[in-house]
Amino acid sequence: MALGAAERGGTTRTTQSFLYNPEVRQFFYQAVTVIFIVWLIWYASTNAVQNLARANMTAGFGFLNGRAGFDIAQTPIAYSSDSNYWRALQLGLVNTLIVAACGIVTATIVGLIVGIGRLSHNWIIARLCTVYVEVFRNIPPLLVIFFWYKGVLSLLPDVKQALSLPASVYVSNRGIYMPAPVFGQTFWLVLLVFALGIAAAVIFSRWANKKQLATGVRPPVLWVNLALIVGLPVVVFLMFGAPMSFDIPVLGKFNMTGGTVVGPEFLSLYMALSFYTASFIAEIVRAGIRGVAKGQTEAAHALGIRQGLTTRLVVLPQALRIIIPPLTSQFLNLTKNSSLAVAIGYADLVAVGGTILNQTGHSIEIIAIWMLVYVSISLVTSLFMNWFNAKMALVER
Fold first, then answer.
1. DSSP 3-state assignment of 94?
2. What is the tens place of the pLDDT at every residue in 179-233?
3. 266 within 8 A of 76, measured Cβ to Cβ
4. What is the DSSP letter of 261?
5. Is 69 helix (H, G, I), strand (E, B) or coil?
């Protein structure tokens, strides 16, 4: 009996030690989590199939080949009402990427300027930047969009009284009309030379940096890069007889004809997302500059470097290592906030997808497309920013 009790006690201790083993517990909880997720997906898909069958509806993406039957105002790529739903979704994606890319560039520039301005020794500049940040950061982005759409752009004059600007540019409540470029057959050579000039400028800049580190003498990078990027394409452009003309907008009886127009929907969304996101980027920039040791600035001033050069060459390069990680989140937020375009009629991915959903009733498929596209954009943006952050990181010797 004593031997049996000892054996049962040993078995109990073995079982307890097995259950409290960290590796076993980790595997057990992961297995339970995976099983639960698989069951949840199975349950949701089964429930969806049953509901679709009950409503006499079929699942699948075959409906994307059907005729769209609706027009879209913003068409950077070829599209008509006779195009299929898949083409309409492509157009919505292109519109989303355009407004997101333009907004990211503008928000970064404005945020950098405002963030530096908040640290300015000029009292007026610092306070104006503070007011800008506090106002835009505490207003919902949808309200900012309505402000630009209804409070600014809709108050511009009608087309017949459009404001005339230089270079045949007209501004009205229907958008900004400007000359549209018409490219000739040989213009692709100019683009090719332009791309080669950018590559050559990058190579020359790297060589100049290495030479400066080795000898202390910096070659004229600015003028050489301007000659490669601007001068060389201009020479090729003139050599081939200027293979580009412009379609000038002309005021007709009721509207502008010719040229190209940037509609108020795009402008309001672009301005709202840019200025709203810039207020958050400004705080990120200010925090990054504050994170650089004050001794770096004092050392630069002791060497006789001016304040502007100190900020550009000493402070900002070090602050970037602090700025880039949270900056990625703001880029992602701007891209996702572009889905608010449906409120003002801008044909982004969500707006186009919503129209298709109302016409076809394929809600599951449309929402799945939305999720896949936004997740893909976020992952690509994060991968690029992580790569850029790794390039900017300090390399220890």
1. helix
2. 888 888 888 888 999 999 999 999 988 888 888 878 877 788 888 889 989 888 8
3. no
4. E
5. coil
